[in-house]
């Protein structure tokens, strides 16, 4: 057809031939890798925490730098749990140890404390050639895995932990994605189903998309402080059995984005359910140090599992995850983390090490940072008092900001915010008027994406729409970190309040 | 059947019932995650560099520590390109900058040079909150990507490089696996085929297994110093078209495990072939600083692509990879690296950033290390002379060891070793007598695995069998690093020689 058209237009066979060649050439120069030809599972991945709203925030920052006038002077990135980016100072001791490991000449410097030097020497002895630049074992440096095991035992009141069950990881995300990768199998109705909370942290849905596994949603109870109800787990599981083989149950405790802290009873119920229904448990416990509400306490799944007796602790397969990125240290950039596995089949442990070995090892300086998180200064050591002061200052501040955020949001008409029991986010429910919903539809946007885009454009505040985490149909939320310094956070919350009131008026 | 047997054996209905319950209980407590139920693609992954031979080496090390007598006193791990583990010292300047970034109090210390401080300040300015502990952009820190682009321009004699095309990665492995992940699609005969050299670095075969893509082998020409011949590429491609959709061509230059350095003509031929056959090019150039043989020189695919003219440089889709792990710096543990993409579709760049953002960012201290690799001291700067001395000392030593290894291997009857033009490995061909092949078969081992196991058990030297990299049917090899210090390497080569001669005698 194209040739015929060209022939008609140009009226000469020679020209037609030349054009045909040109067309062929052009055809041969189409890209190999396009949206149409790419891996459809990767295409299906969504990751809202760094999604369109964050790209927009980047554009606005560029415009501000160019001097373009806006109703604000800076973009505040409350989209991601990145404490240092919000001005939190690193824990001195942790950085001293990592610096000593990086540049061992400093071991002779009188300006570094002995307890930091002692730890640095121990870590370096665990490294090939005493260098952070050597590959470690794929499972991580031995002595650091021993320190992790000791930490878990202390944390869990003496429940034993075996260094052989500890795997150091590239942040918690890497561990979670790796375990999911091993777990997924089967085709059609026997494809592996992975149960995740809604709202969830979108690493889960992204990993499930990449692996072409089946996402099985269970809903947290917003009316009940985002509690997990086993009846809802059962409903979700039973429905899923019709279309897949659900064999993994993911728990995030303390919750992200929802901030709830699970009580002992809830965890027991979940473990019993996993035992009964033969589900592999994934416990994402990266916010274990971030618990703020009176009467709330962090219980690890591992500890409760042991307390439930041998029928449980000899059988339930559990992987739990921790990280250097959150807590009081906030060392996201180091990509440090660990996972502990319980009741993993010995052959699977071999498979896991094999899979990890393809990527050689987690970053060794991140492993060193993880070591200080699990092996901090103890009473009597030189650095103890400064360490405790720094740690408590961060955690007390976070607790204050959690309460402040809840209180301020709940004073705004059309916003409801559950208590921030833990973690570092508010996930308030927002009322969006139907006129705004219509306008969002006209822009082909989720209503809360529309809301968050407007918030960003009018105030410079970058938060993530609830639709990026999942929420009950017809309800709308956003996730905002509570990491900015108190005074800044207050201003930010005032701005959100003013924006929201104006938004309600505009679309009334 | 089990119940009937039990009934027969125990002779009582009550006992049979009790046993049946026990059986059921046991059945209900089978593992969820087993070799049978796991992801079959992960199960299919093989990674010889850290495979069975390395596990065995670990066991032997444990036995030595326990005081068990062996014909040797230490295990020498010549299986992996880990320079620092073999005693190579880190480049002082690189570590100074990373230490300054880690613990910025040191910026006030008179014991650090100004040029290191200047770089550290620049890197920290690129970090959120001036901290290595912040997440960076998923693509990597802006100013480091700028430095990478400048480095590439200098390296390639002025061919332009755009920081927007640079992605910092978690080592080169991460970049390679990520690009492959985006590329793989289709089912049945239209499943993506990935062409890789044989012998190859097993990251490629492992990533292909994980992604359930189709591995398409092209053979390097051992008789011709492991050169790449385009006729062999064409043979391989044409055969593959019958069972898959080959759309990716992977090149490793300098070669791993084979050490050849491709000349300009070869690279031009490969680029022309990729252009003609519409193949996406992956150029693994992590050994770009490791070129030893007279008359050999590293040419980047990017540079040759530009020199071939606009028809090529406007069209051929290329991703090339570099790393902090090899070269003269050997900083494997930092997991630093970058990739440069050329002619990637803008929509695919968006998809790439999205996919990378799920893992948040590459380790920031690894990014800092990468910065120093691409932005080292220059003439006139305080640290220049020490830097150059350290760099040249490492590279001159490697060149010496490359020649020594080739020469010593070629003096052993039944071993033939091509020149080690580049990289950091010897991949000698070894003659294995048929009696040894039979014994290997009896042990269900590949003949070269059998050989390497014997070598390990008798000498403590750990090398990787050629079967882990791929080789022509009936030929046998092993890969050995040339990283041990010269004197140690000589002893090691003597030991291999003695072992080989005894092995030939034993199985004559």
TrEMBL record, chains A, B:
Transmembrane segments: none annotated. Its EC number is 2.6.1.2. It holds the Pfam family Aminotran_1_2. InterPro entries: ALAT1/2-like, Aminotransferase_I/II_large, PyrdxlP-dep_Trfase, PyrdxlP-dep_Trfase_major, PyrdxlP-dep_Trfase_small. Pathway: Amino-acid degradation; L-alanine degradation via transaminase pathway; pyruvate from L-alanine: step 1/1. Keywords: Aminotransferase, Pyridoxal phosphate, Transferase. Gene3D superfamilies: 1.10.287.1970, Aspartate Aminotransferase, domain 1, Type I PLP-dependent aspartate aminotransferase-like (Major domain). GO terms for biological process: L-alanine catabolic process. Signal peptide: none annotated. The keyword Transferase applies. Residues 96-495 form the Aminotransferase class I/classII large domain. One of its GO terms (molecular function) is pyridoxal phosphate binding. GO terms for cellular component: cytoplasm. It catalyses: L-alanine + 2-oxoglutarate = pyruvate + L-glutamate. Its cofactor is pyridoxal 5'-phosphate. Homodimer. Catalyzes the reversible transamination between alanine and 2-oxoglutarate to form pyruvate and glutamate. Belongs to the class-I pyridoxal-phosphate-dependent aminotransferase family. Alanine aminotransferase subfamily. This is alanine transaminase. The lineage of its organism: Eukaryota, Metazoa, Chordata, Craniata, Vertebrata.
């Amino acid at each position: 057809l194209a040739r015929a058209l060209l022939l008609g237009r140009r009226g000469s066979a020679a020209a037609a031939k030349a054009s045909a060649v040109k067309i062929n050439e052009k055809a041969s120069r189409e890209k190999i890798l396009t949206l149409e030809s790419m891996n459809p599972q990767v295409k299906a991945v969504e990751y809202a925490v760094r999604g369109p709203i964050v790209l927009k925030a980047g554009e606005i920052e560029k415009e501000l730098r160019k001097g373009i006038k806006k109703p604000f002077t800076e973009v505040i990135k409350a989209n991601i749990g990145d404490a240092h980016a919000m001005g939190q100072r690193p824990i001195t001791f942790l950085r001293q140890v990592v610096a000593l490991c990086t540049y061992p000449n400093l071991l002779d410097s009188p300006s570094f404390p002995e307890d930091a030097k002692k730890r640095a020497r121990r870590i370096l002895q665990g490294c090939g050639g005493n260098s952070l630049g050597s590959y470690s074992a794929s499972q991580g440096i031995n002595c650091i895995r021993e320190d992790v095991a000791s930490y878990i035992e202390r944390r869990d009141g003496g429940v034993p932990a075996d260094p052989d069950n500890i795997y150091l990881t590239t942040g918690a995300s890497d561990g979670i994605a790796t375990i999911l990768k091993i777990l997924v199998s089967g085709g059609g109705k026997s494809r592996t189903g992975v149960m995740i909370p809604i709202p969830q942290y979108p690493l889960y849905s992204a990993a499930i998309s990449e692996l072409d596994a089946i996402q099985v949603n269970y809903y947290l109870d917003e009316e009940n402080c985002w509690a997990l109800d086993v009846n809802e787990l059962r409903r979700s599981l039973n429905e899923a059995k019709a279309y897949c083989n659900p064999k993994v149950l993911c728990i995030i405790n303390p919750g992200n984005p929802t901030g709830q802290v699970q009580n002992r009873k809830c965890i027991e119920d979940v473990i019993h359910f996993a035992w009964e229904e033969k589900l592999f448990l994934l416990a994402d416990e990266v916010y274990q140090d971030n618990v703020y509400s009176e009467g709330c306490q962090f219980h690890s799944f591992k500890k409760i599992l042991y307390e439930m007796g041998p029928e449980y602790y000899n059988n339930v397969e559990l992987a739990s995850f921790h990280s250097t990125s959150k807590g009081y240290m906030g060392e996201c950039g180091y990509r440090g983390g660990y996972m502990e596995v319980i009741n993993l089949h010995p052959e699977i442990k071999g498979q896991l090490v094999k899979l990890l070995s393809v990527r050689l090892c987690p970053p060794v300086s991140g492993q060193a940072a993880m070591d200080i998180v699990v092996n901090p200064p103890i009473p009597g050591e030189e650095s103890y008092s400064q360490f405790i002061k720094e740690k408590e200052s961060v955690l007390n501040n976070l607790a204050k900001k959690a309460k402040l955020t809840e209180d301020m949001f709940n004073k705004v008409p059309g916003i409801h915010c559950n208590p921030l029991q833990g973690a570092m986010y508010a996930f308030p429910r927002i009322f969006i008027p139907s006129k705004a919903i219509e306008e969002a539809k006209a822009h082909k946007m989720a209503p809360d994406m529309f809301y968050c885009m407007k918030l960003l454009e009018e105030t410079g505040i970058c938060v993530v729409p609830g639709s990026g985490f999942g929420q009950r149909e017809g309800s709308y939320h956003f996730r905002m970190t509570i990491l900015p310094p108190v005074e800044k956070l207050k201003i930010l919350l005032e701005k959100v309040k003013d924006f929201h009131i104006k938004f309600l008026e505009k679309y009334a």
